[in-house]
Amino acid sequence: MRLKILSLFVAIQALSFGLWQHYAADPVQASILETGHVHPAPEDVTQQGSVLSTDISGLRFSARNMDDQESLLHPIKQDQIKSALKKLPASHAETVKTIILDYKAEAHRGLGGSSMVILRGVNMSTEETLAVLIHEVAHNVDYAYLAPTETKVTSSFRDGSTPLYESDPSLEFYRISWQANQKRKKTATNMDFVSGYAMADPFEDFAESYIFYILHNRDFKAMAASSDALYAKYLFMRYQVFDGLEFDSGDGQIDPKKRPWDITVMSYDLDEFLG
Fold first, then answer.
1. I need a labelling partner for 269 at 20 to 30 A (CA). Which of 126, 130, 200, 218 fits?
2. What is the pTM assigned to this prediction?
3. Cβ distance 128 to 265 under 8 Å?
4. Coil, strand or helix at 40
C-alpha cells in the first residue's frame, strides 16, 4: 500500500539508525529509508522473451527483530529475493535500493515506496514472500519509473499530501477506472479490477495489475477478454510498463466472473517464475 506520510518517514529514519541491523554486502535492490512513501500489502500475501540482465549489485539489505535461528535463514531469504528481482526488467529492479526484512510476527507482510521495500521475514512461504515483493516493487515502479516529466499542472489525484502532475504517465492507467484517489468512475464495475484489493485506490489497482501481469499473465488475458477496462489495463502494462514484454505465466483457466481478493496469495509456479 502507498502511504506518503512524513511522520512515518521520520520514524523509519530513526529506527534505521538504532534498532535495525544492516547487511550491506549482498546484491539486489531497494531503499525506503529515503522517503515516507510507504505502501503496505493487504493483510491476511517466467518470463517470455529475451533473458533479462538485471544488475542488483547496488542493493542493500537490512534486518530487524531477528533471533539467532532467523539469522541463519536470513542469507537464504536474501538469495531468494535477489533471484526474484533478477526476473524483473532492470529498470524496475533499479527502483529499489534497500530491502528490509522484519522478523516480527506482527509486522506488515509488505511495505513499499520510492526506493525501499520492507518484507515480513516470518510466517510467509517463499511463494508468498516473493509475490509480496513484486507487489511492493510495483509501487516503486509506479512512483519512480513512471515519473512525471514536469511539475506545472496538478491533477485530481494525490499521493497522501503530494499532488500528482498531469505529466505523470501513471495517470493514463488510473483514469481507466478512477476519477480521483477514492472515487471510482460511475461506469466502473467490480469486473474491471483484477482483485478486490485493486479496488482500494488507483495505486493498489496498479500494483495488483502489475503482479497479476507477471505471475498470472494468461489469466489476466482471460479476464481482459470480457472487460474493456481490464483490456486497457493489460495493454498499459504491456506497452507502457514492460515495453512489450509478456510473461509466460498462469494457465488462463481462471473464472472470468470471479475476482480473488489479493493476488499475492494466489498460487503460482515458483520454479517456473525463477526459471
1. 200
2. 0.81
3. yes
4. strand
